[in-house]
Amino acid sequence: MKLAFSTLSCPNWNLTEMLQEAQDSGYEGIELRGYQETLDLTLATPFLPENLPETRQRLADAGISICCIGSSGVIGQKNLAHVRAHCALARELGCPYVRIFGGKPESFSHAVETLREMADLARSEGVALALETHDDFSTGAAVGALLAEVNHPAARALWDMHHPYRQGESPEDTLDALGPYLSHVHIKDGLKDGGYTLLGEGDLPLKSMLTRLKSHGYDGFVSVEWEKRWHPELADPALALPQHARVLRELQQVPEGTCCMS
Fold first, then answer.
1. Which of 88, 102, 253, 256 has its CA 20 to 30 A from that of 42?
2. What pLDDT digit, counting tens, does each position of 20-78 carry?
3. What's this model's pTM, rounded to 2 decimal places?
4. What confidence tens digit (pLDDT) does each residue in 72-106 have?
5. Are strands 128-132 and 97-101 parallel, antiparallel or unpaired?
């Protein structure tokens, strides 16, 4: 498994600061979820068409990949233009996945139809969608059932470890449901009844989750989602991101300097 962090963790940082942190703490990837003042990445300065060549070069020089683009695409809102634009950006950055939410679609059949449309858009750009365990689809069972019905190669799953656990779904059941589709993982810690903590200081059985993930054969990115953008009271990313990287290495018993490669 490889380690990344989401830009939710550092909403005030610029690209230089993000790349420096990734290199200093041993992260191999960055997940884009907003950039400074905007959540729409197509409006962010480093990702404007005229700046993309320089941005790609800076990422390559740093040895850091963009592992996922966190769009605001929502099946229940059917915001197809937004999804298309972020899939096009993902293609330009060599990023394989664009995260979307399920939201609250009017019916299961509407969700199936809309996700197929969105997945067609993603496939046309050479990328895939990753549907997060969130909203009306907060469990692996809900996401797995939808993806099974959609049956589209560009419709995949994102396991946010916190949400199914808070819904009372066991990690074993989550992985069983998401197994055929799992392409990206968000890791965070917190209390089951609400509130986030630094990694290892909350209720989530993280070591067990990571062990099961590895035994499942997952070799993609595990992305730290320290939600500083939504919760400004959380610790500064300069403290939180190194802490998460260190604890993840300890949880996986991986020597310092080799990050989370298996």
1. 102
2. 999 999 999 999 999 999 999 999 999 999 999 999 999 999 999 999 999 999 999 99
3. 0.94
4. 999 999 999 999 999 999 999 999 999 999 999 99
5. parallel
Record the tokens describing residue 163, joined without a space.
């949400």
d(Cα 92, Cα 47) in Å, to the nearest integer?
A: 9
- In our burial notation (b when 16+ CB lie closer than 10 A, e otherwise), range 17-42 reads ebbebbeebbbbbbbbbbbeeebebe
Whole-number Å distance between alpha carbons of 258 and 227: 26
**45: which residues sit within 8 A by CB, 6+ positions away?**
35, 51
